[in-house]
Design brief:
37% of the residues lie in helices and 15% in strands. A 7-stranded mixed beta sheet has the order 5-4-3-6-7-9-8. Strands 1-2 form a two-stranded antiparallel sheet. The longest helix has 17 residues. Helix 2 crosses helix 3. The protein has 2 domains: 84 residues, Helicase, Ruva Protein, domain 3 (Orthogonal Bundle); 207 residues, Rossmann fold (3-Layer(aba) Sandwich), CATH 3.40.50. It starts with 8 loop residues before the first helix and ends with a helix. The protein is of the alpha/beta class. A hairpin with a 2-residue loop joins strand 1 and strand 2. The chain has 13 helices and 9 strands. The structure holds S-adenosylmethionine. S-adenosylmethionine binds next to helix 6 and helix 9. S-adenosylmethionine (SAM) binds next to helix 6 and helix 9.
Length: 303
């Protein structure tokens, strides 16, 4: 049998993936499969970004990196922590972010629409002010700052701990002049500020559903995941408040995961546009400022 210190990168990724599969890990915190998660881990140990690994697959893995890979693999299996927390890094919208247990691992599907400047739903040239509500690690705010180089972005969260992580990322991406942090319970501390685009990936898991989620999710802050009995408390408040914070022609883009059907059912008359990601997922909606204003009453109805 081959000594593990002589394994190539490709062999090491395969061996790591097999260990993950045997341990029946849950994915969905930055990767969707055992091989992808293994490639990320191996790349990290080698100091190579996941999208740069292809050119190195036949190179041997040095013993020091192999030791690190073994230790990280064992820790991932033993603790069931999302790999991002073990590596203190996450990849979102093609960029690297610092993460730890104070924030959820960024994986928002909204990233795809940010990269496309929300086309064809808004005149991108005119976007000057963006709000990322419930910003967590700041990933979506930072992705917006890259996608709209002339815009100022506000990144709001009620959690001081999350904002501390977002601050690290804003500094690392050198975007301090264009991305400002706000501590706010949804719109509460945002006074009468208005934006051209509001993006939000709020908590949207129903309380009972939380208990059924794989162990990996229990390492994430509950405040970031659970939102009342039906998972819709935060998004309902956002829908009720958004019109007052959007400029004419502005848009609200919100992500609600598998609560999409429940949201549409709760507000049947509201013309949510369900955006389709490249993988066919439809859990991100878009509403124009005018539609939000028109349906203001629906959002005020008691649930
Ligand atoms: C699902 S996480 C999303 C984080 C980030 N946008 C992302 O996509 O990775 C939801 C975030 O909402 C924040 N949050 C929860 N309740 C809030 C509230 N009432 N006001 C503002 N932020 C809130 C949590 O602290 C958490 O960071």
């Amino acid at each position: 049998m081959k000594n593990t210190s002589q394994r190539t990168v490709a062999e090491t990724i395969r061996a790591t993936a097999r260990r993950f599969q045997r341990a029946k890990l849950h994915y969905g915190h930055g990767t969707e499969t055992a091989p992808d998660e293994a490639a990320w881990l191996v790349g990290h140990a080698l100091g190579v970004a996941p999208d740069r690994l292809a050119g190195r697959l036949n190179k041997p893995v040095p013993p020091a990196a192999m030791k690190k890979i073994d230790a990280l693999t064992a820790a991932r299996i033993r603790t069931r922590k999302p790999l991002a927390y073990l590596l203190k890094e996450a990849w979102f919208a093609g960029r690297k972010f610092y993460v730890d247990e104070r924030v959820i691992v960024p994986r928002s599907l909204t990233g795809e629409f940010i990269a496309e400047q929300f086309q064809p739903w808004i005149d991108a040239k005119r976007v000057r002010r963006i709000l990322d509500l419930c910003t967590g690690s700041g990933g979506m705010a930072i992705a917006c700052a890259y996608a709209f180089p002339k815009a100022r972005v506000e990144a709001a969260d009620v959690s001081a701990e999350a904002l501390a992580v977002a601050r690290i990322n804003i500094k690392r991406h050198r975007l301090g002049r264009r991305v400002q942090l706000r501590r706010s319970d949804l719109f509460q501390a945002l006074k009468d500020r208005r934006y051209d685009v509001i993006v939000t990936n709020p908590p949207y898991v129903a309380r009972a559903e939380m208990r059924t989620l794989p162990r990996e999710y229990r390492h994430e802050p509950e405040l970031a995941l659970v939102s009342g009995r039906d998972g819709l408390d935060a998004i309902a408040r956002i829908l009720a408040g958004a019109a007052r914070h959007l400029n004419p022609g502005g848009i609200l883009v919100g992500e609600v995961g598998n609560s999409a059907a429940a949201l549409q059912k709760k507000f049947p008359s509201v013309p949510f546009v369900w955006l389709t990601t490249s993988t066919g997922d439809e859990s991100v909606f878009l509403l124009a400022a005018e539609d939000l204003a028109r349906h203001h009453r629906a959002f005020k109805m008691p649930s």
